[in-house]
Amino acid sequence: EMLRRSLRTALRENQFSIEYQPLVKPPFTIVGFEALVRWRHPLVGIIPPNVFVPMAESDGLMSEIGQWVLEQACRQATTWPSHFTVAVNLSPAQFLHDGFTDRVSQTLDMVGLRADRLELEVTESVLLEKTTNNLDTLNTLNVLGIQISLDDFGTYYSSLSYLKNFPFDTIKIDRYFIKDLENDEKSQVIVRSIIALAHGLGMAVTAEGVETRAQALWLEREGCDRLQGYFLGVPMPPNAIDAYLRQSS
Ligand code: G
Ligand code: G
Ligand code: MN
Ligand code: NA
């Protein structure tokens, strides 16, 4: 409850920051970063997003926090090589907010980022609510040239009907299926099938939670388009990106 109350002042008091995790085309070409929000509470310390995002969501604060993340992340991306993308996670409240698509395009204009350099990540839980509006929103973003990813694919309320009805550019395979890839035949079958499914639908695939060289090699061999995870790079503050890029090139 104390946390909940301090969430109201956190934006105003500048307590949020963003870390960026590399997105890599196998074997080792960096193609962008995913923005991951952090909250540094003055007394409690770092509070992870899976703790405070649901709180902010239920208190009606997540749309504003999400807009702050979007703007910071797009601004940051303008300082990177011009072919790098930036991926931003959307919460249901933010996505369903009136005028969301206008805000996104205004933000791109304001910071001067090309639409195709922005990737918006939605989870299946976002799509559960108010389905016709969702489709309009995704179609509008798609027409603007923004890339849309389906995050955490294979968990929660996964349904193949989303793949049939919504215009995704990329499917992100949840790390649950990646973690035992080396030893678990079932995970291999599932991941291979998701890759085939995505490619058959003209979508790209990102594997999340890649932690070992063996996983990366297996995914590369199976035609996975992009890798993300501690093996490729951990989430880092913006001022660490230059050094990371120098060391990886
Ligand atoms: O960074 P970390 O692994 O702790 O992230 C945990 C969860 O929080 C992930 O599911 C991630 O998608 C989510 N998350 C991180 N940043 C944001 C954000 O800016 N907005 C939303 N809605 N979710 C985020
Ligand atoms: O749900 P989403 O994909 O947005 O979650 C991203 C979260 O996954 C971030 O909080 C990030 O810290 C975490 N993460 C990123 N790479 C790895 C990894 O290789 N292993 C594990 N366990 N978590 C990871
Ligand atoms: Mn994500
Ligand atoms: Na995920």
Attached small molecules: guanosine-5'-monophosphate, manganese (II) ion, sodium ion
Give the number of helices.
11
Could you estimate the helical fraction of the residues in percent?
A: 40-55%
| Mean pLDDT figure | 94
Radius of gyration: 18 Å
Q: Please outline the major beta sheet.
A: 9 strands, mixed
Portion of residues in beta strands equals 15-25%
Topology pattern, helix = H, strand = E: HEEEHHEHHEHHEHEHEHEH
Domain EAL: 1-249
Protein name: EAL domain-containing protein
Organism: Ensifer oleiphilus
Secondary structure: elements and pairs:
Blueprint: H1 2-10, E1 16-25, E2 29-41, E3 45-47, H2 49-58, H3 62-77, E4 85-89, H4 92-96, H5 100-111, E5 118-122, H6 124-128, H7 131-144, E6 147-153, H8 160-165, E7 170-173, H9 185-200, E8 204-207, H10 213-221, E9 226-227, H11 241-248
Parallel strand pairs: 2-4, 4-5, 5-6, 6-7, 7-8, 8-9
Antiparallel strand pairs: 1-2, 2-3
Helix pairs in contact: 3-5
Bound molecules: guanosine-5'-monophosphate (2 copies), manganese (II) ion and sodium ion (NA).
Question: Can you offer a commentary on this structure?
Answer:
It contains eleven helices and nine strands. The chain has a single domain (2-248), classed as TIM Barrel. By secondary structure, it is of the alpha/beta class. It has helices at residues 2-10, 49-58, 62-77, 92-96, 100-111, 124-128, 131-144, 160-165, 185-200, 213-221, 241-248, and strands at residues 16-25, 29-41, 45-47, 85-89, 118-122, 147-153, 170-173, 204-207, 226-227. The longest helix has 16 residues, at 62-77. Helix 3 packs parallel to helix 5. Bound molecules: guanosine-5'-monophosphate (2 copies), manganese (II) ion and sodium ion. The site of sodium ion (NA) has 5 residues, from strand 6. It comes from Ensifer oleiphilus. Residues 1-249 form the EAL domain. This is EAL domain-containing protein.
